User: Which sequence fits this backbone?
């Protein structure tokens, strides 16, 4: 079996187990609040083209835009702070003051300032991804072995050269880990943001179905959300295996 | 080719509340193409000396010249080889060996030619696409050497380059270092804490005193590089001479024996 086949088999297995547990729970509960997988998937298929897919695309757009924006802002800044004690002395207290504050508390403010559309949601998620990546990139840059920096500097590399060849690449594995964790949080917060304001996205779809007591559609939305999570996770996996090949050969 | 001259070389590390004098007025003259070993107790400023010669540190007082030019920063034909090899785990063997040329913007085709030639020379040609994590310790150090060779370095500054290796690999690489020096005739400064290694690879062995580092003694070792030197009585004589000098500096050997002896005497009483 090659890597892809093994992965597909893993997902198939996990899906089977999940469906079985779900079906058993639905039978045991015997309530229309928890429909079994069959009606849920029927609703998923029936709703997909006209209803679900557009909402899913909106949600995927919001998460991707926010992740890219967060990464572009946070990674260079974090790496810089990690390598520059002077800049870090100024910025670190600011970061540690703001990092523990759950960014979701700014949702009401953002909704008022930026409206119910994409802007408020993307901004909120950008904030979350930004902080996660900022702290990780900073710590990863600090942990770069002095030997690596020294040897590349001794080859005559400029500060920028050291940054590029050593700091940025060396911090990549940690940054990917932070991205995986960050996007997980991002999807959860996206659900909240979409369910509170606006009329688009999977969060809206799920809460709207709930409001109409259409539990089959609600679970179709949950399935879509799970698919979106898998999609993001696998995309990050592929990117990491391309960019961080060396982490897979260490003996 | 590049000789190395240090004049009154002093380096003070400024610490919190207390400054550490690593080198204090060190004078040293190494001729072009001369292989030198530097040995001394730990903390005698051996590594500091190399960093200064490589232009990675600026002296607090005094000056260093390489090839007649004052050292003000990293020099193109100086290679610094570190104990932990200084390889980048995320670059393949090829790109690690090519790094110096890449940093210096040598054209791609020439880069490829020079890197492959040096990898061939060090027996790493079939591993071009491997990552350092896949190599043994000896191969990693060969790779660090390949990088220096690709640069066509005329001054090799080596900071305990073999001390992370097992004994057999170590001897193998000592032979390799000697062979490379014979073929290329570069100036070579080897910092080591192994007496045998110093005698095997240094035509002159410089003994540094404990902190602050100064030149405590110089042992001439004219037979260095002769075939089978490691097995000759002269080799052992030099080693014994050096051990004696180091013991006087409070570094090794006799000193330790003395302490053990004293402790035993105390127990008997």
Assistant:
């Amino acid at each position: 079996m090659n890597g892809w086949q093994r992965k597909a088999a893993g997902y198939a297995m996990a899906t089977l187990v999940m469906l079985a547990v779900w079906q058993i729970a639905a039978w045991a509960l015997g309530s229309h609040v928890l429909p079994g997988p069959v009606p849920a998937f029927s609703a998923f298929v029936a709703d997909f083209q006209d209803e679900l897919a557009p909402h899913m695309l909106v949600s995927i757009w919001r998460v991707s835009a926010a992740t890219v924006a967060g990464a572009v802002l946070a990674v260079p800044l974090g790496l810089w702070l990690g390598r520059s004690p002077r800049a870090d002395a100024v910025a670190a207290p600011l970061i540690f003051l703001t990092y523990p504050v759950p960014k979701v508390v700014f949702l009401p403010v953002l909704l008022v300032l930026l409206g119910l559309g994409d802007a408020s949601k993307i901004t909120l998620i950008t904030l979350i991804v930004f902080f996660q990546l900022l702290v990780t990139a900073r710590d990863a840059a600090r942990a770069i072995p002095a030997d690596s920096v020294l040897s590349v500097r001794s080859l005559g590399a400029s500060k920028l050269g050291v940054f590029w060849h050593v700091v940025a690449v060396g911090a990549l594995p940690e940054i990917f880990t932070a991205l995986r964790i960050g996007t997980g949080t991002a999807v959860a917060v996206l659900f909240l943001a979409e369910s509170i304001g606006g009329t688009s996205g999977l969060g809206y779809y799920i809460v709207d179905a709930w409001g109409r007591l259409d539990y089959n559609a609600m679970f179709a939305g949950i399935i879509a959300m799970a698919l979106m999570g898998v999609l993001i996770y696998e995309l990050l996996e592929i990117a990491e295996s391309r960019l961080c090949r060396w982490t897979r050969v260490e003996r | 080719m590049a000789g190395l001259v240090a004049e009154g070389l002093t380096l003070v590390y400024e610490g919190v509340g207390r400054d550490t004098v690593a080198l204090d007025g060190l004078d040293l003259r190494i001729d072009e193409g001369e292989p030198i070993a530097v040995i001394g107790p730990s903390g005698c400023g051996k590594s500091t000396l190399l960093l200064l010669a490589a232009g990675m540190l600026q002296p607090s007082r005094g000056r260093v010249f390489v090839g007649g030019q004052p050292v003000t920063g990293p020099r193109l034909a100086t290679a610094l080889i570190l104990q932990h090899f200084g390889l980048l785990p995320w670059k393949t063997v090829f790109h690690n060996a090519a790094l110096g040329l890449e940093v210096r913007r040598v054209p791609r085709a020439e880069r490829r030619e020079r890197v492959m030639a040096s990898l061939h020379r060090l027996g790493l040609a079939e591993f071009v696409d491997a990552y350092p994590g896949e190599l043994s310790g000896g191969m990693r150090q060969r790779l660090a050497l390949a990088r220096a060779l690709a640069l066509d370095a005329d001054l090799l500054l080596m900071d305990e380059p073999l001390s992370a290796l097992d004994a057999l690999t170590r001897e193998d690489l000592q032979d390799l270092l000697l062979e490379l020096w014979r073929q290329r005739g570069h100036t070579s400064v080897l910092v080591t804490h192994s007496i045998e290694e110093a005698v095997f690879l240094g035509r002159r062995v410089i003994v540094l005193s404990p902190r602050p580092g100064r030149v405590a003694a110089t042992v001439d070792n004219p037979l260095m590089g002769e075939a089978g030197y490691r097995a000759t009585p002269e080799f052992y004589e030099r080693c014994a001479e050096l051990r004696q000098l180091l013991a006087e500096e409070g570094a090794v050997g006799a000193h330790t024996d003395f302490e053990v002896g004293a402790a035993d005497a105390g127990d008997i009483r």
About this structure: The interface with chain A takes residues 54-56, 73-76, 78-80, 82-91, 99-100, 103-104, 130-131, 133-134, 144, 147, 151 of chain B (CB under 8 Å). Residues 253-269 of chain B have pLDDT under 50 and may be disordered.
